[in-house]
Amino acid sequence: MSKLWGGRFTKEENELVNEFNASIPFDQRFYRQDIRGSIAHVTMLAKQNILSNEDKEAIITGLNQILEEIETGSLAIDPNAEDIHSFVESTLTDRIGDAGKRLHTGRSRNDQVALDMKLYIRDEIDEMDQLLYQLLSVLYDIMKDHIDTILPGFTHLQKAQPVTLAHHYGAYFEMFRRDRERLCDIRKRMNYCPLGSGALAGTTYPLDRDYSASLLDFDGPTLNSMDSVSDRDYLIEFLDALALIMMHLSRFSEEVILWNSNEYGFITIDDAYSTGSSIMPQKKNPDIAELVRGKTGRVYGALMSMLTTMKSLPLAYDKDMQEDKEVSFDAIDTTRNCLILFTDMLRTMTFHKEIMEDSAKHGFTNATDAADYLVNKGVPFRDAHGIVGQLVLFCESHKCSLDQMSLEDYKNICPVFEEDIYDAISLQTCVSKRLTIGAPGQAAMKQVLEIYKDYLNK
Predict the structure, then answer these.
(1) Confidence class of residue 284 from pLDDT cuts 50, 70 and 90?
(2) Which of 122, 131, 141, 321 has its CA 20 to 30 A from that of 14?
């Protein structure tokens, strides 16, 4: 296949140089965006009387036919083509003749690449947003069903205070909701069309860039042609958003792994999302969660790769920017697959309420409430803190929990204690009396769930 730029050269490109320079192995996934951009471009050219309506119709018909044949598999993308742009244009010209040669009028491969990448990333943002929505919907359903499921909340991986499963998973709902907001911000900021910027200095043809932008659902044209062809900020922002999504999935996966262990026993992962051992027949490993945790590093690496690639590039376009594709595609594919699998794993998990509540009882998670009880009886907080510390020591030495202590034992440590201490430190009381918005109390959680319901129904 002849090169689109070959007229100035007298020698064939070295074969290794050709392989090193070519991007068709990875940018062929742009074929939809490339064809869509080309159809918008020739539509604008015809409107501006730069291209005849006859040529426009021939080009659009030819491009739609190429698209259909690629989609159905009857047309294979030539692996020897330099890039997807060359393949589409050459195939078109072979089929319709001189009209195909007019496709590139008023356009450079630089603004074409910039357009394709923006269209592709915009599509991926929309898909990633939907995957996050599905994950949030699963989280909401779990939260709604577990507003009374008590488990220990942790700090420093030590049992701290009792919370509910709804409250605990609400923290992840907030994380993934912020991820959606970030994607929305990126999409809005990037939604300006680079088509018509040329190589770097625009073109002498009377293009209607506003019209091109509207055909492609952009908010308008970009305002500086040099920045248009050399901007990858939106891609870096997107990779940053993907890194944050993966970080949140990784944190969640770590808890799934812990909670699935024999030592915790809070959950059981469905067999469809577990694997076994080749030598130990009893094993049921949380491999999906572990792989999500492990693959987070790949997405971090893509972000750092792009930041490093762009850090010292002079204006305007440089071939270095071709390196944006492989790492970005891998990060996108990785994040997409992780979201899909993690959501399904979460949807099919079993929660063991009794084990969770028993763990909270035996972790002194109600110790703070015992101190609050003394404060309400007039004991200064610092004294109350020390008294409850003595209670914990007593329980540890007698291998019991606070609710298993006798009232006599309580009074031996502090005579202020009365029979009502047992109600004050019951896990249900500890949770239900935390009523401020954002707390685990049932009334507060019902309020939050209504907010989440409205959010998901928008």
Answers:
(1) confident
(2) 321
